[in-house]
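User: Structure with 2-oxoglutaric acid, tokens only please.
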Amino acid sequence: MLEPIAKPGPLTEEERFMFETFGYLIIPDALSPAEVAACLDASQRAHAPYPKGEWRQLGHLYETEPAIEALIDHPSTFAKVRAIMGDYFILQSTWCTVQPAGGKSGGWHQDGSSVYDFRRLALPTPLMQLRIGYYLTDQSQPNQGNMAMIPGSHNVSMPLPKSIKPDTDFPITQVVCGKPGTALLFHQGVWHRSHKNEMDWDRFTMHMVYAPPWLIKSDRFGNDKDFMARTTPLRRALLGEWNRPEEPFGVGYAKPPF
Ligand SMILES: O=C(O)CCC(=O)C(=O)O
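Assistant:
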């Protein structure tokens, strides 16, 4: 199978070419087993109070869970994010996602704001959200709640054909397989969905979403003051705490302290 496999660390020219072509990169071993265990523990703790058996996403867990906080600027992926986004971007949202044991495949979608779809800006859809989904449970085989992607579909201007329903096995679908610790970095315009989970355990994936600084934060109404006081200057900047400089027109914004 053709797979856009990348390595942890800086974005190479070959990786950039694969990202442009497929709309995503698969990065095995982005997290160590210890990091996976800590993030999984945090995710299970966060979802524990909610009903079992439902697909669910929880936001801004990094505020209370240091293992998730470390993903904001993780060395295995962060240089790639910066190489693609440039110097001015924010962590727009973070979604700790459970696809429950026995969960059905989700619907095909591109990400964005359904009240004003990114597709309305231009076609093909420009890069507005660069996402990283960290696999926290084993998805090395299909049917384990994996992400399913349609490679290259971020470059397509026509809408998804109506005949493609949630349970349609579209021939060019790639069910992204990976061991725990694999990162899937993707353009929000790639048509994707969660694949069914036929296992008897819940699947957890931690999504981190980077965006231009003028998009509103979408997993929180505001930044938690205590968290902002204790986190690092770089993370504060990535959470969008920038002061507007004196000049009009937004000239002279300081770069985040990379
Ligand atoms: O992790 C998943 O189950 C899918 C997440 C997804 O499709 C999304 O957040 O847009």
